[in-house]
């Protein structure tokens, strides 16, 4: 029982510390094969408190599930659905938001 409680507390603390973007359509999808980085560009900036100038929602290659994020992002792009990203601000490059989660919205 303690293990389950520990996992739940840690899972909710990760979500509580993560930032989320505004919800908008994806304008462009970019993949850098040399670095393995996946980028999503919205119709406007990704508005996140603390990193308001984010242009790119970036999935770093070391994350598991980057290919799944690409599939979800492309599905949203082709269907004309809006998305929201969850992740962390990048203090050294404010134009990049380190995404780790993508949600397709209505």
UniProtKB/TrEMBL annotation:
The keyword Signal applies. Keywords: Signal. It comes from the Bacteria. Residues 1-18 form the signal peptide. This is Lipoprotein.
């Amino acid at each position: 029982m303690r293990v389950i409680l520990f996992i739940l507390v840690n899972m909710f603390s990760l979500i509580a510390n993560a930032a989320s973007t505004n919800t908008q359509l994806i304008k462009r999808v970019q993949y850098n094969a040399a670095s393995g980085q996946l980028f999503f560009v919205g119709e406007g900036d990704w508005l996140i408190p603390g990193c308001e100038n984010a242009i790119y929602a970036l999935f770093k290659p070391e994350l598991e599930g980057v290919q799944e994020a690409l599939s979800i992002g492309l599905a949203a792009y082709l269907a004309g659905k809006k998305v929201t990203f969850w992740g962390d601000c990048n203090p050294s490059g404010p134009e990049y938001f380190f995404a780790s989660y993508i949600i397709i919205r209505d």
